[in-house]
Amino acid sequence: MPAITLQGVTKQFGDVRALRGIDMTVESGEVFGFLGPNGAGKSTTIDILLHYTHPSSGSVDVLGHDVSEEPAAVRKRVGILPEGFAPFETMTGRQHLAYAIEATDVDDDPAALLERVGLADAADRAAADYSTGMIQRLALAMALVGEPDVLILDEPSTGLDPHGVRRMREIVRAERDRGATVFFSSHILAQVEAVADRVAILRSGELVAVDTIDGLRETVDAGAELTVDLAGDPTEISPAVAAIEGVSTAAERDGDLVVGCTADAKLRVLDEIRAAGGTIRDFSTGQASLEDLFVSYTEGAA
Ligand SMILES: Nc1ncnc2c1ncn2[C@@H]1O[C@H](COP(=O)(O)OP(=O)(O)OP(=O)(O)O)[C@@H](O)[C@H]1O
């Protein structure tokens, strides 16, 4: 049984068509990354999944329950890390967990959950005084209460330091390994690339891709990333390289010229650099990153 199914979901806010007909299935037990530029409709989709807002049309099913008909049954089995979680003024981290545990009617140990997200030392401090990253860790601990079947994480890496980002990744993997489905939105593409089994890319309220990252690479044929160390200024040569057939991006990065291109365009790029008078000191090739793929799917989005 799929964990999440959206069929023909639209959402209209006045004149704004935030979602224009989303059909999407998230399988049980997968880690699913939900991507899109600002304003693409990610938060609107998540709000609809959680029954915080109604779709204008279409249907949403989570764990076999129609979200609009059985919202309570869905909430019971879903752990949520909302965007912009704000702690209660007067409660400590431990008290937040105790509250979430009671509300979910389970007997989890607050200390163990706080330890899991790296907040053990701050358990008895007022959560309103936590830093942004600590608040995000607390929100994650609350989402994990009761071993939910589905975790919905809206921008989970916001404010996290590199240790927090790594811990988040480990927790997502551990949750998947215990059998949970993880659906998360993110702008941190390296994070998505590291953990997601599949990704969906939303653009202006429409899904433009749903696939594994390797599948996306094949579809856009943006299989290669070429990094060229030039004797001169890379920006002098990048416009000529960008015009080569099969090249999707050509830009300076850390003094090198970095070119996103199809596998068969690599030699043409090197030839063109030499023909344009460039001196190649060294070069290396790698796979297109999720960032390259994201840009090629969403370029020109309003
Ligand atoms: N309550 C609302 N009233 C009017 N328009 C809204 C409302 N909520 C969202 N929108 C519009 O719907 C569109 C999608 O917004 P949404 O917040 O879902 O995007 P997002 O993909 O989550 O963006 P971001 O990455 O910036 O968080 C935007 O054009 C936004 O202005």
Automatic annotation (TrEMBL):
Location of the ABC transporter domain: 4-229
Keywords for this protein: ATP-binding, Nucleotide-binding, Transport
SUPFAM superfamilies associated with the record: P-loop containing nucleoside triphosphate hydrolases
Gene3D superfamilies: P-loop containing nucleotide triphosphate hydrolases
GO molecular function: ATP binding; ATP hydrolysis activity
UniProt cross-references to PROSITE patterns, sorted A to Z: ABC_TRANSPORTER_2 (PS50893)
Family: Belongs to the ABC transporter superfamily.
Protein name: ABC-2 type transport system ATP-binding protein
